[in-house]
Amino acid sequence: EPENTEAGYVVSDWTLSLDELTALCPNLTQVSLVVAWFGDDLRCGTCTVAPKVEAAGREIVGVEWSVAGLSRDEVGVVSTHDGGPAYGGTPSDGAVLAAIADLKARGLGVTLYPLMMMDIPEGNPLGQPPYPWRGRIACDEGSDGTAAAAAEIAAFATAYRGFVLHYADLAVEAGGVDGFIIGSEMRGLTAVRDAGGAFPFVEALMTLAADVRAVVGAGTLLSYAADWSEYSGVQSG
Description:
Elements: H1 13-24, E1 30-39, E2 49-50, E3 52-53, E4 66-67, E5 70-71, E6 76-77, E7 80-81, E8 84-85, H2 93-105, E9 109-118, H3 147-173, E10 179-184, H4 187-190, H5 200-216, E11 221-225, H6 228-232
Helix pairs in contact: 3-5
């Protein structure tokens, strides 16, 4: 009773997709492997960052879902939208390792891309917009430029570090990757100042980059995938 052969019915959707991709793009040399965890609050001081699954109960023959030592019954379930899961769940660590191995076997370089998605459903009790962009995570209104902002950033950075460093460890377990992304489009956080005028989340990212480097080694390219407004100096509303 296969769950992952909806497109081809003979081979897995992963295999079919990669076969089609490499056939369509014969000069392809690098791919980004995106793996998502989920945030639940646009206020960084109270936002959690954690893996989620599509269903609390699911029997899969021959394999157990596990991420960062957590089993299926120890994590949350993604919200529903239009009668189904709003997101695909976080892939098991074993699936990520298998994906990296298959990409390497095909002669492709791999950039591992931990990506944070916001699972805030419609009608949420926080009164926040549904399924917002992660770039809207920010400090409480009025705290920019204060010690409170630094404390809120520190609370978020602790949770976020665990997410990113888990995949740095997984990259090493996979035998290494060509590139690694430590963050993406978090402009609501990178623009926040503390009481001294410094940018605490930028500093947290710099520390995180150094810590990821210590894990993955000198042979892996590291980057932060900035939103255009972060490097242009202009922020849209």
